[in-house]
Amino acid sequence: MHSTSRPKPATPPLTVAVRAMQWERRMRAAGLATRADQGRALGVDRTTVGRLVAGRVTPSASIIAAALHVLDVPFEELFEIVPRTGSRRRTRREVAA
């Protein structure tokens, strides 16, 4: 007996992106105006924060969790799910995840 179910359509590769304007607004409102302040609050280097906000790297689960905890906002306020474009190289952390 053969199956009559149709194959599911392929889901495009997705990733998480920072909503830069909301990030800046929320961080400033929390008194975290500089990348150094933001990095200290999130437990990462200031350069990592800069790369996140610029969209050059994908936020890790720990950075997402830290940002949501520090700012006490829902995921959708700071982040969005977007198709992965493939135009940038994946970080070691992304590959390992």
List the helices and strands and how they pair.
Layout: E1 14-18, H1 20-29, H2 35-42, H3 46-54, H4 61-71, H5 75-78, E2 79-83, H6 92-96
Antiparallel strand pairs: 1-2
Task: Please describe what this structure looks like.
The protein has 97 residues and is mostly helical. It has one domain: 434 Repressor (Amino-terminal Domain). It contains 6 helices and 2 strands, in the order βαααααβα. Strands 1-2 form a two-stranded antiparallel sheet. It is elongated, with a radius of gyration of 17 Å. The model has no long low-confidence stretch (mean pLDDT 87).
Question: Could you list some keywords that capture this structure?
Answer:
97 residues, mainly alpha, 434 Repressor (Amino-terminal Domain), two-stranded antiparallel ribbon, 6 helices, 48% helix, 10% strand
